[in-house]
Amino acid sequence: VGQKRETLAKHKNGYVFPMEISVAEYQVAGETFFSGIVRDLTGEKSRLKQIKMLTYFSDSSRQGFVMLDEHLNIIYCNPYFLEVTSCFQDDKAKRIKLSDCYVQKNIEKIKEIITTKDFSQYGWSGEIIIKGKKEEIPTLHNIFCILSNEIDACVGMVITDITQQKIVEKKLANAIKEAD
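-> structure tokens emitted (180 positions)
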């Protein structure tokens, strides 16, 4: 009594589902009454499972995932993004700013991209340099609108390190020059 409990329940059609029940006890005219509230947790459990799977996917990916708020503060980034960039924080409580990871001209480029009128519909893909731990790193960015309304705005970025691709492109360009 007075606490919430999770258990399984069975619907009259045989469907078993997770539920939360809370029971309260109260007195009226010297008699004891109990009331209960039952809540189906099926949707909530499904969303939690999806979040766990997405977190696992994001955390084990070799691409950087970043979510930004409307002020370009990082709401979420996966471990690979922190590994690649110079914005690794030992103090998880400290909010990471985009300026920790990008040179100013690229922050301006991202601002310009997300304020174009077609951005929320089509997104953007292209190359942006990020600050690495030791050197600047060429990356391919796929930037897209996750949520945009009058109250909230959220931008997502998928970042792929293309350093090796750039090395191969440079070698290929040199080989073509030498062949001519």
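The chain has five helices and eight strands.
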